[in-house]
Amino acid sequence: MSDRFVILSGCSGGGKSTLLAELARRGHATVEEPGRRVIAAEQASGGQALPWLDLAGFARRAIALALADRAAAATRPGWVFFDRSLIDAAAALEHAAGEPALQRLGQAHRYHPTVFLTPPWPEIYATDPERRHGFDAAVAEYGRLVQAYQGLGYRLVILPKLSVARRADCLLAALGGQRGTSS
Length: 183
Fold this sequence. Notes:
Helices cover 48% and strands 12% of the residues. The chain is of the alpha/beta class.
């Protein structure tokens, strides 16, 4: 377990990546969303492990990438902020294929006990080449993620719908302003 590894999860299109960029701008270590990197690689290679073609294959690739991200993050000092996590990918695999990966992976690879969630925010939601699903699907995914994180015993903090700078301030204040320490 690493109390330095902080998850930003929640609704697709809720502002996670923008918040991650703000945290990086402030000097914090960040890890980009595995799913978007899997999609980019699959699109570049003509692969089929895309959430709209093969959600289970996509989730398996995202799990592998999230595990590699955790290993690489161990060498980084202070807080490390993850745009989504291994838990998100395992929840997707369980949803898509019924494979019981969530409990096994979620217990073996712990993060900071507080997870920060971006709630559904229709005013900023938009599709793009990597996010093809609609808002209703994003809200359903959000519900599954809330259940997944609660089921693993994480404390959830729903980030307010504020400017990115104020959201970052809220998140850092909730962490107590500490720089993060190894555990």
